Amino acid sequence: MTSPQTWPHVFEAGGAGTPVLLLLHGTGGTEEDLLPLAARLAPGAGYLAPRGPVQEHGLNRWFRRFGEGVFDVDDVVRRADELAAFLGWAREHYGIADRPLVAVGFSNGANIALAAALLHPDAVSRVVAFSGMYPLEGRTVGADLSGTSVALFNGSSDAMAPIDSVTRLGSILESRGSEVDRNVREGGHGIHPTEVDGAAAWIASHTRKVSHD
């Protein structure tokens, strides 16, 4: 069990009124991996970047798996619960409860972000998922996801995140009321520069401050 208070992470407050990006690295990454991406996605924004709590052959991950693309779904659920608890602690600890939070994940990090959104939409309501797939195979998702928004960025020939799983993911999210923006490019696993541009525009449009006169 990962305790929120001792979870390795880095935090940058960013400018007042800006969103906070929850940066979730891929397999083998660290909390530093996606920091360069933050400035390109939302200049001046804050960020919160924890380290995946699971070890696989010495590599950091967010949850266990039985093989490539075969997830330990019980562990996915457990780790999504832990991430939601960590976010609750961080929001209070860093005083960011009133700022919009966007989970930005790559690969394994995208999958835990999606799992958290599916299971804890109150904690994670906006997700940018690069090369992610459906993380809860065999489980029924019962949560009401109205008010959540997800941007999916995938390669059409990605063997690590098969497009049929991505299609199913989008359909499940929409069936529960989520707003889903699907983006499929040619190519495989990774983050393409055009996807960064698309994600930046999506984040801006989904975190724009509404003025009240």
UniProtKB/TrEMBL annotation:
UniProt name for this protein: Phospholipase/carboxylesterase/thioesterase domain-containing protein
Matching Gene3D superfamilies: alpha/beta hydrolase
Segments traversing the membrane: none
SUPFAM superfamilies (UniProt xref): alpha/beta-Hydrolases (SSF53474)
Organism of this sequence: Arthrobacter pityocampae
Keywords: Hydrolase, Signal
Occurrences of domain Phospholipase/carboxylesterase/thioesterase (ranges): 9-206
GO terms of molecular function: hydrolase activity
The UniProt record lists the keyword Transcription: no
